Fold:
Amino acid sequence: MGTCTTPLRTVMGASGLPARIERLRQRALDGSDTPVGYRALAYCQAAIESRGRPLIIRRAAGLARTLAIFPAAIADDELIVGTHLFGERSGVDAAFDFPEFASHLFERPADALRAALGQTTLSSEERGQILAYEGRAHELVGFDPSAPAPPDPVALALRAEVLFGWGSCVNHSVRDYAKVLRCGFLAIAQQIDERLASLRMESPDDIAQYSFLRAASTIAHAAAGLGTRYAECARRFAADCADEGRRKELLHAADVCDQVPARPARTLREAVQALWFAHTITCCEDHINANSIGRLDQILQPYYAADLAAGRITEEEAVELLMLLNLKLYRDYDVQQAILGGRRPDGSDATCDMTYLCLEATRRLGLVRCLSIRLHRGTPRELLDRATDLLAEGGGIPFFFNDEAIIPALMDKGVAREDAHDYAVIGCVEITIPGKTNPHAVSHQINLAKCLELALHSGLDPRTGLQAGPRTGLLEDHASVDDLWRAYTTQVEHFARCGAFVSNAGEMQQEHDFPLPYQSILTEACIDRGRDITSGGALYNYHSCSAIGVPNVGDSFAALEALVFGDRQVSPRELRQTLLGDFEGAESLRQMLLRWSAKYGNDEEAPDRWAARAAQHYCETLSQFTTVRGGGFHAHLFSFVWHIDPFGRTTGALPEGRKAGQPLAYSLSPTQGRDEKGITGLMASLSKIPHHLAAASSSAIIELTPSFFEGDGRETFVSLLRTAVERGIGQMQFNVVTAERLRKAQEDPERYGNIVVRVSGFSQRFSLLGRDMQDHIIARAKHSN
Structure:
């Protein structure tokens, strides 16, 4: 069968968008009502029928059955067909379709399960089959009785909430979607079956591979059949369609689905459809959250170039296809990251036609999609200009990653040069090598500000009364700021070791509890090694771990150096007692700490030096540890929303003047309102942080008012980006909105409901955020110069 050349049927709407895009856009904003219960039904049936077989076989059977029984339907206006393979419906517990995550529903008594079933689209017979699974959700996850219980220091650290973590790689990935487009699932299945046939029954080394490869084969064959189901659906709908234009569209969709994802994509339309099908299977295995797309422009460029050369597509049609893909991916909370630009594996600039088309599709659609851009010294001026224009419209996209910092950091961690040049981003800011890595993103999180608090009180946590950390002396026991620094680093190193335990124990547990055979078939080396990604199948295995509170540590040590150990304006004992009392009756002392000592974010020597020192110490401490698979630990200088809860909530008063329970600084951004010397001072402070040591990424949100981009502002911003790249700043996100407008949105969410802000590695409508997060964003400084 030749490639189909039927053009898109485009009728323009009143907004200037194609009319079909207008209607689909509104449908996306209204929220979808995907059929609920079919994934749960499939996994329950498969678990019962395959009881007694290895867990990976049971999970593969559940995924394959979901692909076979989920109702294939095509909505009006759709050209890219298919939907997520699990339910989304108001009134139904979000975890319902994932029994392995929903023990609160599936363990006895069955009242909650019956209530959820009443909201599904399942038949009474199908509901009965799920009810028969009551009390057996554990059959979809394993249990390793030899899993290590946390030793006392780790248990204390977790109770005091100095750190937390999981060590798993669930729903944080960038899979090798390019392989699906290039090969198709039938060829992948053939590769697996040939590998399976090559195993020797008498070889001890081969025994462990049988279960994985059988599971992988089951999934690959089932994935190849997904397009066939939608092709049949499209032809059924076409037979009943009175509109000749729509009938032709449905028949074209059928032809596309006959080809993909079973066979290689030949056109951009087929490539986008295959990519979407492959992504829906990803999310069916372990949910949508932070399963990301990767280098979208690099994945799709060959198909667009071939279509263009053959006269099969126009630029406008390509943009429309990208808008259709964006609408499929759209979520209110969206961390299905796509990244553009950067360098090719050979080091040359990767900017291409598709880079600009992806930006244009995002701009025209007017919906915030999680989109970022890789920058380097050779990034074309046109890309900087186009990115600036999109950013100036608000919504916090795109955000920017610096190849000049991230690529060397990855290479220092043992990633091959060509692979380091091909990095992509998971979710918010987490770095991975697409289709080659088990990165264990945000594997554990440590509160550096809490480590400082413990250092002031000899390891005692004032909030809980626990002796959470080592006894390193009280603040008044230290003769100098350097002595206190040693106490602080002792605390950090202790809790970093606890964090390494949490991460490694979590990785060991996941191998038994939650294999990921679909992710594995789209991860290089897993098939050749015959090992699931959770069992060490990936080419690269490492843990990415977050340090939170770096700016707070910098500001606190600057205040201690200047006012306690320097000018002696307050005694160490007086300050410690004041901190224990949360500055009660000591507002004048608090103001002195706030106002008389320099703050990070203003190009001030002392706080910037201490912040950089804290970041470097954490990165170097983490680099000493080894993972279960012999890999390393990579540092995130990134806080997500944990700087508010739990870490802001559980951290007491600090020498910087911060009161107990207040939010910590977001990632490497200054504490709210403390950057008072404009964007130049802020960027200078950021540039002093050793971003090149943070192989898992650094992060900063920078607040700009819309007026920043007036007049010569766009030119200034482009220069700012160039300077940031040259000075090694690893990652930047920008909010473009005024505090006044946000206050109005807080007071009148209905009227201002569509304001989108950068939250913490992701953008979301302001009206959907909790009050604490809204207040936090409003409090962050806004730069107009």
Summary: The longest helix spans residues 481-513.
